[in-house]
Amino acid sequence: MKRVCLVRCPSPFLLDEWVFPPIGLMAVGTGLKQNGFEVFIHDEKLSKIPLDYRFYGFGPTSPEYSSALEAKESIRRYNPTAKIIIGGPYATINPEGCLKDGWDCVVWGDGEIVTAQAFLEDHSFIKGASRPLDEYPIPDRSLFNLRKYKCYLEGLPATTLVSSRGCPNHCGFCCKNYSHVRFLSAGRLIEEIDMLYHTYNYRALLFPEDIFIINKKRTELACEHLKKLGMVWRCLVRGDFIVKYGKDFVKMMKESGLVEVGMGVESGSQKILEIVNKGESIEVIK
Ligand code: B12
Ligand code: SF4
User: Fold this and answer.
1) What is the SS3 string spanning the chain?
2) pLDDT tens track for 125-155
3) What number does the ligand 1 atom closest to the CA of 90 have?
4) Which of the four CATH numbers 1.20.120.1560, 3.40.50.280, 3.40.50.150, 3.55.40.10 does domain 3-129 have?
5) Span from the CA of 89 to the centroid of ligand 1 (angstroms)
């Protein structure tokens, strides 16, 4: 059996790191499982990483990278033949740096399909294809203990669902490699909502992705379904989309169970908004 250990890096800089489950590792683990791997997601202290695996995978963001590097070195010391690879946000932003740091393989971009190849074949770098999101399996929440992550909305246990990737805007402070946006279709989004409702008994959801509402029609279909289920939910928005879609759209979202939005204001100075390339005016944000 091909046994793989995917490691979630610690984020001690967060107020509470046990809120949002690692969806990226879950997505990669689901792809590996479909390719016959036995997947274990390690989300304990790094000092407790099991050292007897043949394959290890890390997917850190930039602030998590130094701890991933340290963990790689410890695994190497005790298990020199293990294949240790890296993917995820940091590897996608700085693949050259990762290559210099001695990872056995660096995976750029989507990991669902290519990670099995990264483990089984002899590559130092692999570029993940940017497929339509409906082609990927629903991330398998049973790969670890979802309830360990304590997130609440209106007092109800909540969890996350990422239903799109990318963003068409170009804020200067934002770290992203591509501007094209990919969505789950309304049907596939509803399928994942239903799974979290029926199989995992969630009545509250968070859509933490860049801009959940960017596709108006899809948002309307999702709202219709969330309303039918009686769920409460939260998402991120941008002021310009809210202004463009209008008050009726906001009312429709609220009536479907929306209880909170997060919106980047960034600054009260028009000059600073321009310097950071926010693409929105103070008036629109107000
Ligand atoms: C949800 C989210 C969060 C959530 C939950 C994070 C979590 N626990 O997963 C919260 C709110 C906690 C959060 C916090 C922060 N986040 Co955040 N977050 C996101 C967001 C919007 C979506 C991530 C996601 O789940 N995507 C869906 C999954 C399926 O995609 P994915 O994670 O990219 O994984 C795919 C690939 O990367 C790859 N992959 C991932 N892991 C691995 C592992 C292996 C071995 C392989 C081969 C491949 C692989 O395959 C996956 C499937 O295709 C992204 C923006 C974005 N569009 O990606 C920002 C993003 C990841 N966050 C970012 C940042 C900066 C932060 C913070 C540092 C912000 C802050 N200042 O506090 C914190 C700290 C995060 C941390 N722990 O280090 C940056 C990271 C930039 C960077 N240089 O690393 C991003 C890219 C936003 C941005 N555009 O700037 N975040
Ligand atoms: S709108 Fe959000 S996700 Fe898009 S570029 Fe700006 S900060 Fe990044």
Assistant:
1) CEEEEEECCCCCCCCCCCCCCCHHHHHHHHHHHHCCEEEEEECCCHHHCCCCCCEEEECCCHHHHHHHHHHHHHHHHHCCCCEEEECHHHHHHCHHHHHHCCCCEEEECCCCCCHHHHHHCCCCEEECCCCCHHHCCCCCHHHCCHHHCCCEECCEEEEECCCEECCCCCCCCCCCCCCCCEECCHHHHHHHHHHHHHCCCCCEEEECCCCHHHCHHHHHHHHHHHHHHCCEEEEEECHHHHHHHCHHHHHHHHHCCEEEEEECCCCCCHHHHHHCCCCCCHHHHC
2) 999 989 999 999 999 999 999 999 999 999 9
3) 84
4) 3.40.50.280
5) 6
